[in-house]
Amino acid sequence: MNLRLSNIGRKMNEKTGVRAVMGDIQEVLAGGERQYINLSAGNPMILPEVSSMWKSALASLLEDEHFPSIISQYGSSYGTDELIQSVVRFFSERYQFDIQKENVLITAGSQQLFFLAVNSFCGVGSDSMMKKALIPMLPDYSGYSGVALERDIIEGIPPIISILDDHTFRYELNREGFLERMRTDPHIGAVILSRPNNPCGNILSAEHVVFIADACREANVPLLIDSAYAPPFPAINFIDMEPIFNDQIIHCMSLSKAGLPGERIGIAIGPARYIQAMEAFQSNTAIHSSRLGQYMAASVLDDGRLAAVSQNEVRAYYRNKFTLLKETLHCTMPKDIKWYLHKGEGSLFGWLWLEDFPAADAELYEQLKANGVIIVPGSSFFHHEIGHMPHAHQYQCIRISLTAADEDIKRGIDVLARVVKEMYEQKVM
Ligand SMILES: Cc1ncc(COP(=O)(O)O)c(C=O)c1O
After folding, report:
1. Helix, strand, or coil here: 340?
2. Of 185, 247, 260, 393, most Cβ neighbours within 10 A?
3. Domain span holding position 26
4. What predicted TM-score, i.e. pTM, was given to this entire model?
5. 212 domain-assigned
6. In testing the pocket of ligand 1, which one of 105, 226, 263, 294 has its CB within 8 Å of the most ligand atoms?
7. How far apart are the C-alpha atoms of 277 and 307, rounded to whole Å?
């Protein structure tokens, strides 16, 4: 029968961009006909110390006299008092940032947080103008396009490419391009960025963040800083960075990469005017996040274990994986190919750029799949800004996950090096 979907229903059902690739990846991996080396997954590794921290938090809760009311009663749409007070205490003490409970919202994961924020601040407004969410430096998390209820809401500024050595590059913020867009385009409703960045691991400097926040203040729009990989948890940063709080920033955190993706906990800290709008939206759409997860989170935030385990275990684990990826690429990739790995500053991924690659990233994805290796093609992280990048750069990149076992990273890169060499050679002949 013909399914009659609304425009929003259709948009949410579309398998375009990264959803198409992710859908394909899931089908391939679920097929079970052959074994694949999966270098695509965003699923975090289950680390023993992290797992035992959550297990003991849950065990204490099971003994708690309040347990029945924790799981059997509804609560506030801002989040539980316990977790909100813990967040206020922890962040005020650690960063000397003056926050109250009105500045905190607990959401059902940070994906939900971005859903609430993007659709509260972007889309058609009372002035009938379609407001967009602007990414100051592409590439960035493809999931932002998915959360918008209307099409083509996410736009971005192409980066400046800086080559650091024979095999390392880094994206730099195009400050002038960003500022000009902010000052001339009345259609910007919010600015959004991940720091550390998914997919490339770039960490924007504090000075750049303040510069972006100042432009947002001038335009009177919020700056959403997606801190899914940032310190103090999960702390997957390999260079120094601190979170930045001010009156224009909504600081968005997630417990997923600190071992709790199943409980769906996102945390926003920001100006009360923005938090209140998002709380109303959450109250209508989800009521609140899992209360069990929130109580577990409050206990490990209070006793300091969440920050300690993140810094000592989670960060160290992924930093070692990045080093392994880099060394394996250096040993394995063909010498006559111009390849560059983005400087490893943080996150769960390596981002590889193959300059002058003779085919598109989607073709490389297919060839690797045929050879038993799954990666994520890079172009969807450029959202629909694809026509504006120089030299087809957005089709020359792939994302490699650091969540695989060491042996799989080595074998996967071996296959990648062989397939890439063959594809360059076929083109030359
Ligand atoms: C940059 C970024 N932001 C947000 C999310 C969503 O995370 P969650 O909804 O599990 O908190 C992810 C998930 O991988 C991510 O990579």
Report:
1. strand
2. 260
3. 7-46+312-428
4. 0.96
5. yes
6. 226
7. 29
